[in-house]
Amino acid sequence: MAEREEIAAGVAAGHPGRRIARALDRAPSTVSRELAHWHTDHPGRPYRAVAAQRAAEARGARPKPRKMEHEPLREVVQAGLRRKWSPSMIAVELVREFPDDPLMQASPETIYRSLFIQGRGQLRRELAACLRTGRAQRRPRKRVDGRCDPDRRIPDKLMISERPAEAADRAIPGHWEGDLIMGKANQSSIGTLIERSTRFCMLLKLPTGAVNPTALQQQIVATIGALPAALRRSLTWDQGLEMRRHAAITIAADLPIYFCDPHSPWQRASNENLNGLLRQYFPKGTNLAGYDQTYLDAVALEINDGA
Asked: In whole angstroms, how far apart are CA 14 and each of 2, 18, 44, 47, 132?
């Protein structure tokens, strides 16, 4: 309370925030934050120590009311979710529509937590189905059993930092990028390959069911292995387990394979763009098992003709 009285006296005297902070032996940001709180709660009113103290005590009170207990905010957020908006889009829209009303604003994290951690005054749980992931609970980024460590799952891999420099500038053909697109419930898949220089793409028919590394190996060897040696200089892949047999592919097709850094899709930008384009032919949630190699070749031809 004594410090807030000093702030009030300094503000009344017209002193800048830094001078007030020096007198209190506080960081300037502390005084700035205190005054910002005041002006948010009491716009247009001069700073008052007693009222500021009461407001600070109220802010520090526990438990705090949940954001989504404010019914008007909850209704607006639920309406946005029903329109298939992401929490990030909703948060931006709230600031745009209610710029001066903190009670009608919520961060994306607040919206996610309200969906996934149910409690009084929270969003309806069935609205989680409106999220783009469709998940009703969060998926942990890492596993505690260590199986998330790609070095344990894909031994002896060469990282993209070891790839020849000529692959980076796309001047010489023969350097490929690859990945999979997955079908409904991850029980069907298509292999996708694109040459970095020419953007020429090829699609691989894979067996139905969970991805089989041996089947993928055979398809890559049969497809790229049939090309002239000058056109199979390297293949860049992400750290998916489907490439566990990379060493066998390298030996059979004389094709060095390099792995991207974790969570770095931009290191295979051409392939990421191709996969996005392919979703026009194979929408997410589609059973990819129904497409034969003849159809995949026709899709690849259409894409290559438009490249």
From this structure: 19, 12, 16, 12, 52
27-79: pLDDT as tens digits = 999 989 999 988 888 888 898 988 888 888 877 766 666 788 888 988 898 88
Question: Do 38 and 110 reside in the same domain of the chain?
Answer: no
212 and 263 fall within a common domain: yes
Q: Which CATH number fits the domain that encloses residue 284?
A: 3.30.420.10
Structural domain containing residue 215: 150-306
The position carrying tokens 């290559």 is 304
Structure tokens at 163: 């790839």
Say which residues have a Cβ less than 8 Å from residue 12's Cβ, sequence separation at least 6: 46, 47
Q: Give me the residues paired with residue 201 across strands.
A: 194
Same domain as 178, residue 30: no
Tokens representing 137 are 């609970």
